[in-house]
Amino acid sequence: MKWQLHNTDAIPWLMDQASEDFEAVVTDPPYSSGGLHTGARTTDSANGKYLNNPLKYPEFSGENRDQFSYMQWSTLWMTHAYRLLRVGAPILVFSDWRQLPVLSACIQAAGFTWR
What we know:
Elements (H helix, E strand, L loop, with lengths): L9 H6 L9 E3 L10 H6 L2 H5 L16 H18 L6 E3 L6 H10 L6
Parallel strand pairs: 1-2
Helix pairs in contact: 4-5
């Protein structure tokens, strides 16, 4: 089995891959759980929320989505990922515990079986 790590914008990359060519997807997408209210999600960057280090790390998009937008976006990329996987292949998604209920719905909406 060959392992590959792809650090890229998921949707364009997924759309460019051949169907049923992968045996698993393991991913750590933006959690979009940075705050209870809109103001908390729009003012802080990922660096401000997660890092107490003076070093600057590159920002990444998608961290400030509300839950509905997170659900739509996650269902979209998971649907593309589902097409790439061989029958019965797993998807493993790292997530914040606050996003677990919506993540369960996204996984199933994309075609996967929740286990």
